[in-house]
Amino acid sequence: MKDEILAHLQDPAQLEKLYRSNKGPFKREFSTLYPDLKGTPVAEFWNQRLTYETEDIHWGSGRELLYVGLAALLAGLIAKIPAIFSLNPEYFYPRNIGFIFLPLLTAYFAWKNNLQLKKLALIGGIMALSLVYINVLPGTNNSDTLILACIHLPLLLWVLLGASFVGNNLRDYPKRLYFLRYNGDLAVMTALILISGGIMTGLTIGLFLLIGFHIEKFYFEYVVIMGMAAVPIVGTYLTQTNPQLVGKVSPVIARIFSPLVLVMLVIYLVAMVYSGMDPFNDREFLLMFNALLIGVMAIIFFSVAETSNASKTQAEIWVLFLLSVVTIVVNGIALSAILFRISEWGITPNRLAVLGGNLLILVNLLLVGTQLFRVLAKKAHLGEVGKAIAIYLPIYFLWTLIVTFLFPVLFGFK
């Protein structure tokens, strides 16, 4: 879209048409172009227009509303496939949970970004292959390789969603960072919708109970399940058509939680030493330790994505830098524990998957930490930190491919 904006700068009608067809992406791309265009009448006009605070809610075009309605209904029907076709839920949901809404979101962004046919075919082909593969993959619910494939497949679909979000130019690093920001905004919007839905559920069940109708089972089996499947689609639509809804909430959350997580993490590491617990001999503790690592890393990346193009105080950059350093320490402990367990008890699919994932995270954190240090030393700007995150995202895609498709074969589907 960036090239389209530049091409139509002197054509008000075409620029207006481009804006109305993709308001969210237009606003994001223009914000990256504005520093270079600043001072020109056209740029100043659009800057004032796009930064004007409005309380109006934009509901998009009729075609968009129709797509969202049909996609939400389809997501709900996919979620109900086990009930409709009498399938075993324990077989269906672990293997297909990502296919309930991620392909529909991918199709939405492919449509909005006018994705080239060859890229659309590639993304669709990988998704179709993954759908067939995961459902014919042998193994029971106790199979380590099956569990790993089921865990990593949604991550693979998430990366494909990112490719659709970025559009035809996959080397557009700012757009990759916007994808991370979109995930943060979607998380906030999803939480708000779920809270509202929870209140509505309680009121509905309570009101029917007052007149003698027990609708709990029906309501949860149909309304709640189908509603939850539709939430990411509706949330995406709202964040894309109305960026102002959570545009200010997400950065505030990032700025509040970054220092709090830093303090919590330092206290937790000290408490771990005194507790006597360690991830070297306790498998469950190691799993929780890795979950903590992934969560903190996500907060760092989310904070950078939310503020990479905004002014940021020196104190906030220090918080992110220290948080990355502490997270590298946590990663080092986790890696040491994994290597210890491999040396003591040998290689298993789970240990190799965790080892590979932690190594990838460590390299990424080192890159981000290095760039944050350079920002503090006045040798780089904050955008370089975001670029270090954006460039690395395809590496995670390759790892999810390996774990999902190669691990079951390498370990004999055990």
Mind explaining what this structure looks like?
- The chain is mostly helical.
- The protein has three domains: 2-51, no CATH class; 62-244, no CATH class; 248-410, no CATH class.
- Helices cover 80% and strands 0% of the residues.
- It contains 17 helices and no strands.
- Helix 11 (173-210) crosses helix 14 (283-307).
- The mean pLDDT is 85.
Topology, element by element:
Layout: H1 2-7, H2 12-21, H3 23-37, H4 41-51, H5 62-79, H6 81-84, H7 89-96, H8 102-112, H9 117-136, H10 144-166, H11 173-210, H12 216-241, H13 249-275, H14 283-307, H15 314-345, H16 349-376, H17 382-410
Helix pairs in contact: 2-3, 3-4, 5-12, 8-10, 9-10, 10-11, 10-17, 11-12, 11-14, 11-17, 13-14, 13-15, 14-15, 14-17, 15-16, 16-17
> What is the CA-atom radius of gyration, in angstroms?
23 Å
Structural class: mainly alpha
Mean pLDDT: 85
Proportion of helical residues: over 70%
Give unreliable regions as ranges: none
Q: What is the straight-line distance between the termini?
A: 46 Å
Approximate shape: globular
The total beta strand count reads 0
Number of helices: 17
Offer a concise description of the structure:
It is built from 17 helices and no strands. The chain is mainly α and 414 residues long.
Keywords for this entry:
17 helices; 3 domains; 414 residues; mainly alpha
